[in-house]
Amino acid sequence: MIPYIRGKAPLQAHVGVPEGLCEEEFGRSGFYGRYAHLYRSEAMIGWSRIEGNLKPRAYHYPKAVRPAPAFPLERFTYLENQDVRIQFGSVEKKPSYFFRNADGDEVLFVHEGKGRFLCDFGTLSYRKGDYLVVPRGTMYQFDPEAPTDLLIIESASEIRLPDKGMLGQHALIDPAAIQIPELDFPSVEPQAEYELVIKRQQEYTRVFYPFYPLNTISWKGTLTVWQINVEDIRPISCDRFHLPPSAHTTFVAQNFVICTFLPRPLENGDPKAIKVPFYHSNIDYDEVLFYHAGEFFSRAGIGAGMVTFHPQGIHHGPQRNAVERSKDAKWTNEVAVMIDTRNPLRRTPESREIEIQEYWKSWQK
To answer: How far apart are CA 171 and CA 236, in angstroms?
Structure first.
């Protein structure tokens, strides 16, 4: 980890980039491994054309172009690999069935809507900006008060909180802010039978009971459904240094992480500090960003509900005009969810229906 230097380069990364040059981070293992900072005369996102599949991509939320998939049975999957599926779904009314995912844990991010979430562990009231972390095998049912749109992250491995190291256990998310269900199931009219749909290996099995299946009287243990709202996440910032995306990690799983970008002050303490995300090569991770709310200062033309996908092997960074816009900016008010995956993601055939075809050209403006 001894840094070598050739030519004129600043000693501190992301601060004091030589006039007329742009800094590119060429790093391994996301932002944790060995690295090099290359100072180039032109940013490598300044392409005139790209031939082939390896290009930046962007997507509309599918409701804009097709009927909403009725979650949980119907899901619009647009990116996937062996570790994770990234999906959309909507709940307009309470389903007639209960659901259990035996394929993986689910992180359900509430983009729009509110209501009640009923599960084996009790009930939760959910609202816009909530993460609901549902362990594999949990039986549940949505009871929306308003139409609910969800970003769904289905994980083949267990979802965990990150190790926050020297920041201490109360940074980012204080565990005391995590909500868990209360045992207050609603009264229901007796039925002849109740249906539970179980998803396993992408197939569905239907099980029927002569009694109401959410019949937990009490429970104890360390495994349950988690709920945390973006308002209860405290982003880390530095007045004199632009922190890497890994500083905003919310959840971790095997071979991918989930990060949350939130309103925070920019790097105003040093006029030489970079304020926008620095250019970098996606060497070991694919990067997906779901834009939830606010103004997304690193790129123009992106609105709430849109998704960008920047795969391994091609450069990534802010649009050219964003660098100029950032010089006088003091604050960012964006709310976005990022999924970084170590293994390459595959685009589904359905994703082509919602793709913004000319997105890769947006750096030319």
So the answer is: 8
Q: Which of 194, 235, 198 is nearest to 215 (CA)?
A: 194
Alpha carbon 186 to its chain centroid, in Å, reads 32
**Structural contact between residues 298 and 318, judged by C-beta atoms closer than 8 angstroms:** yes
pTM exceeds 0.90 for this model: yes
Residue 159's closest CA among 95, 227, 217? 227
> In the prediction, which pLDDT does 272 show?
86
Sorted by where each starts, the structural domains of the chain and their CATH numbers stand as 44-59+236-364 (2.60.120.10), 67-230 (2.60.120.10)
H or E stretch at 354: helix 351-354
What is the C-alpha radius of gyration for the chain, rounded to an integer number of angstroms? 22
Give me the average pLDDT of each 10-residue run along the chain (365 residues): 87 89 87 88 90 91 78 95 97 96 98 98 98 98 97 98 90 94 91 96 96 96 97 92 89 97 90 83 89 83 90 85 74 93 96 90 77
Give backbone dihedrals phi and psi of 192, rounded to 5 degrees, phi first: -65, -40
The single residue listed with the structure tokens 């200062």 is: 297
Is cis: bond before 56, omega within 30 of 0? no
Strand pairing of 279-281 and 22-27?
Answer: parallel
Distance CA 300, CA 235 (A): 23
**C-beta neighbour count of 262 within 10 angstroms:** 24
